[in-house]
């Protein structure tokens, strides 16, 4: 009997264990199915998230492109507006100049024959004046150099007053200062020290390297102003005149001489100023100035770019632009602009300077000496030039 009861107990326990195993297997299958479903949902969610991210990225890219396009259009519109303003200012200057130069005449009825005769007489006078003030020489080569001295800063300018009988040397060291050193002659400058020079303290500091001395007056770009030119009497050190040149100061005159925004020059025809105009792609602009009143006489837009330019100078109404590399190399004249339209850049050969692989930070042509006074990385250098008649070039 006990054996039968024991057997019955064992069978009951085995049956209970089998039932639990079946339930556990069913639960495991259920959990596995649920986990698989969750994994599928997570994969779909990740795919949807990636699609949304891609759409957001595409949308942001499109928006950035539209914003960039709008900025380009805004810049173009601003450039066009500034260009119109610049042209209006130039027209106003020309009109004002013509009004000042042209005397008011009474309205008089003149017969056609008399009018034609007056026109012929006027044309003869104009031709006579043009021939009297015109120049007929052009640069054909830079034949030699002479290193006079090494003094002052890497940047600077040195020059002579081209007025007849003047032998003084004027020395400007650096890009900004209010003191000019005056030497009695080139020999004094060559043999003496800077401490032996006569210092001239200006009423306002100068900026850049584009200064000139003309007939006892110093013309220079006043520091900390975009476009003010001062005319200072060197004897009494007072400001004799000043002017604001519109459209100047936004770009350096030369890409390789970044501190100079106005470059003044003197040649056989008088006083000039060069500057770079962003409205014309950074090309150089020539302006003829009245040395007495600092009034603008005329302006020419040239085809010479300021890119890779280091300096420029005028000879007989022709602008010669000197180019180099940013790291220093052999300087060369690759572009010119003749205001008389006699010689042309595309027909002229490239003119190389004597081998000296540095950078020029200023060049001043002396119409009496027929030489260039250059500042060459702190070396004061003189270049002798070859000149010929424009008809022979």
What attributes does this structure have?
single chain; four-stranded antiparallel sheet; alpha+beta; 393 residues
Protein architecture, described:
- The chain is α+β, with helices and mostly antiparallel strands.
- It has three helices and 20 strands.
- The protein has helices at 2-101, 112-133, 186-191, and strands at residues 137-150, 156-160, 169-173, 176-183, 198-207, 212-214, 217-221, 228-233, 238-244, 263-267, 270-277, 283-289, 296-305, 309-315, 318-323, 332-338, 351-352, 360-366, 371-376, 379-389.
- Strands 1-20-19-18 form a four-stranded antiparallel beta sheet, with no helix packed on it.
- A hairpin with a 6-residue loop joins β12 and β13.
- The longest helix has 100 residues, at 2-101.
- Residues 99-112 and 118-132 have low confidence and may be disordered.
State the helicity in percent bands. Answer: 25-40%
Report the mean per-residue pLDDT as an integer. Answer: 83
Report the count of strand segments. Answer: 20
Over the alpha carbons, how many angstroms does the gyration radius reach?
Answer: 40 Å
Structural class: alpha+beta
Quote the beta fraction.
35-45%
Oligomeric category: single chain
- The helix count comes to 3
Kindly report how far apart the N and C termini lie: 142 Å
Placed side by side, the strands forming the largest sheet appear as: 1-20-19-18
Order of helices and strands: HHEEEEHEEEEEEEEEEEEEEEE
What spatial form do the alpha-carbon principal axes imply?
A: elongated
Please summarize the sheet with the most strands.
Answer: 4 strands, antiparallel
Low-confidence stretches: 99-112, 118-132
